[in-house]
Amino acid sequence: MTMSRRRPVHLGPRSLAALALVSTVGVIAFGWPFLAPPTSALNAHAQDAPWLFAGLLVLLVAVVTATISESGLGAKAVAMLGVLAATGAALRPIGAGTAGIEPMFFLMVLSGRVLGPGFGFVLGSVTMFASALLTGGVGPWMPFQMLAMGWFTMGAGLLPGGDRLRGRAELALLAAYGFVAAFAYGTAMNMAGWPFMGALASGVSFDPDAGVPANLARFAAYCVATSLGWDLGRAVVTVLLTLTLGPAVLKALRRATRRAAFETAVTFEAPRKAPERR
Length: 278
Description:
Elements: E1 2-5, H1 13-35, H2 41-44, H3 49-54, H4 56-71, H5 75-95, H6 104-135, H7 142-157, H8 168-193, H9 212-226, H10 228-260, E2 264-267
Antiparallel strand pairs: 1-2
Helix pairs in contact: 1-4, 4-6, 4-7, 5-6, 6-7, 6-8, 6-10, 7-8, 8-10
């Protein structure tokens, strides 16, 4: 009998294609102010864009459903997805985003690390969807949150050394990723709402008539002025929780994946013939 490692959520060709498609659409949805020329009709109808982007929610749910069905997840793996998503959704209201106190992020980092990038994207998207329903945060921004959290969790599953790196070195890697990714998540969500500020803050708002360099400068100023403190708080909390609770949570997650029997695949080899006696 031999045992070989495999990802808990196998991404087949259709799932990979769907994930690439929704990621491409997501990048366009987040970055359209820099992708569309100043004379574009999209810029002229910027107030209609949130409703158009809200349609991303349907596409995201379709990708999650396709990934689960094509991956052939067993009942234990699906149950584990539900438990982790429910736990993450329950953690989100604890800090309510105050000063960046959002413990949900450290759980997503550790879960993505143990369970792989495919499971990570599904878990991140489902967790954000569940937390939005729990907190009443349903709106045009929700598809963006699902995309950003899916990428955030998936990135942890793509970190190197998944089979070999353990102990303090692994915790340091996860803490460093959580710190950087926390800022990346906040920047992405800033991008989702920044173009629709209108005249609320003319000095840092999106200007459809300005070029890309000018709008990049405006966006950077907007991030510093509005969310730097929250992003820093989120990053610090993620690092502290990863370093303090990480060993116990990683151990529990790895034990759970072994019991769910989807971390390793078991194959049987034909028995060898005994040598003939002379």
